[in-house]
Write a structure and sequence with these properties.
It is a single chain. It contains two helices and 15 strands. The chain has helices at 9-23, 44-47; strands spanning 58-67, 75-85, 91-102, 107-121, 127-142, 169-184, 188-195, 214-221, 223-225, 239-250, 253-264, 267-280, 286-299, 302-311, 322-330. Strands 1-2-3-4-5-6-7-8-10-11-12-13-14-15 form a 14-stranded antiparallel beta barrel.
């Protein structure tokens, strides 16, 4: 049976929202202060805490990414999350852990966060979800690996110990918070999330180095056929095509991504383009970032995906791009428990 029944006024608003994201002019595509995965929905609550508990029962997600593997100090990121959707109350809870490592200074960031979401129906077709995340962030670096300005002589040679008074490892701990909301039906969704609400101070010294708030807008529309409760029954495989668009904004940096996911169970294929063909960013360079190619398999509540970023910017064309792998398990697929009467199935993109 068709996965959606007609197109109402809210769906038309969604299409306008998608067009705005895709056609948004003069958006510099730069790496902001936060690392982001190419498989954006592989750990959905990392993008927006409102996605917490979006499955029928419980799910676990894992994502690992290595960016620029050909350089001496590649960027490494990992995410793990697990969530649970209550059946008797319209809420979900979750736990998320993140790890990032970058640079010759061995800059590391590890975080552990708690997630909560609440959802309600506004009519027979549409549901609104709101979510929050509170986390503790542990950030460290090793100043022994740094070379400061006073260690470089006038002729460019290295001249020994710095007088900056910084050496050894240093660790700071700070709290961080995120809020988000998503509106969706069985085929469409659009949402907004705001991260670093309190703009925490991430300085390793006595200074003030605030982490800017990050805003993200995300939307998509699934075209396809699936049975009514979102589960694949015997003899009925999922076939769907889902165009998506996302926009991140953090301080003066903006990043736009748009693409599509194709599913013919068990095969999944996806493509993302990060960048705009026209215009330049504040640094005066081209507005290109990467082409992302995705391949995965989905069956019986289990998903595994791989993606490769082909860099098209001048930033690191010979750096080796980026490799990313993700795994997700929907435990609700294996249970016979009663589905929540409060919530509606959301389109659930897997990349």
């Amino acid at each position: 049976m068709p996965h959606f029944k007609g197109i109402n006024r809210l769906t038309k608003y969604l299409r306008v929202f998608l067009i705005i994201l895709v056609m948004l002019p003069n958006s510099p595509v730069l790496l902001a202060q936060d690392s982001e995965a190419s498989q954006i929905y592989s750990v959905p609550m990392h993008l927006n805490p409102a996605f917490t508990g979006s499955s029928d029962f419980s799910s676990a997600y894992l994502n690992y990414r290595i960016q620029y593997p050909e350089i001496n100090y590649p960027f490494v990121s990992a995410r793990f999350a697990i969530d649970y959707s209550f059946h008797k109350i319209p809420s979900g809870v979750g736990l998320i852990m993140s790890y990032d490592r970058s640079g010759p200074g061995d800059l590391r960031k590890t975080s552990v966060g708690a997630l909560y979401s609440y959802y309600f129906n506004i009519n027979r077709d549409w549901e609104v979800r709101a979510g929050a995340k509170a986390e503790a962030v542990f950030q460290s670096t090793n100043f022994s690996n740094y070379i400061f300005g006073d260690q470089i002589s006038a002729n460019g040679t290295y001249q020994g110990t710095s007088q900056e008074g910084l050496s050894g490892s240093e660790t700071i701990i700070y709290p961080d918070f995120q809020l988000g909301a998503v509106m969706h039906n069985d085929a469409a969704w659009f949402g907004i999330a705001v991260d670093h609400i309190a703009q925490p101070n991430q300085s390793f010294m006595d200074g003030d180095s605030r982490l800017p708030r990050k805003y993200s807008l995300h939307a998509g529309y699934r075209f396809g056929f699936i049975n009514a409760n979102g589960r694949v029954q015997k003899g009925l495989k999922e076939f769907s095509i889902t165009p998506m668009a996302l926009l991140w904004m953090q301080s003066s940096f903006k990043r736009l991504a748009h693409g599509a996911e194709f599913v013919y169970e068990p095969l999944m294929v996806g493509f993302w383009y990060r960048g705009l063909p026209l215009g330049t960013n504040p640094a005066g360079t081209g507005n290109q970032d990467a082409l992302v190619f995705l391949l995965g398999f989905y069956t019986q509540g289990f998903t595994i995906g791989y993606s490769y970023d082909y860099t098209i910017s001048t930033l690191a064309r010979n750096s080796g791009g980026a490799h990313e792998i993700s795994v997700a398990v929907d435990f609700g697929f294996y249970t016979m428990g009663k589905k929540s009467s409060y919530r509606k199935r959301w389109p659930n993109p897997r990349f």
